[in-house]
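Chain A, query sequence.
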Amino acid sequence: MLYFKRPILYNILFAILLLSLYGCNGDKKEKEAGYVAVTKFDSNRNPFKDLQDAVAEATKTNKRILLDVGGDWCSWCFKLDRLYEQNPDLNKFLYDHYIVVKINYSKENKNEKFLAQYPQIPGYPHLFVLESDGTFLHSQNTGKLEKGKAHDKDKVFAFLKEWTKK
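Chain A, predicted structure.
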């Protein structure tokens, strides 16, 4: 009977050893992971810092930056996010070519000082395309990317392709 318990005991000890080794390296792995994308509208974030981090990543990866301005209150913002989620080819293209940064605009935090450096926004969501170094390139009213009660995949794809680095 001891014969059967020994392999189980060895497996348990081996698992504990692996978990402890992973735990020791966990912090290191997080630090090595580098850039963390801003994927949610958050009134508590610092958009100046977020852009600074995006510029560092875009420079390293040779991508452009796409600022997505909106908020959790914005139904069209959700519709645009859903378009990306439901179209893996569009989503892959977006993240293969752009560093996406969501910039919150809400009654809690309008980020007026940050947004003052860009053209006026007529509606939400609104997209700004920036060069890797953060230089402003284009302001996009997403109303022009709509068809009916949603964003049009072909129009969004065409917009992204037009502003992709050549």
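The domain at 47-162 is CATH 3.40.30.10 (Glutaredoxin). The radius of gyration is 22 Å.
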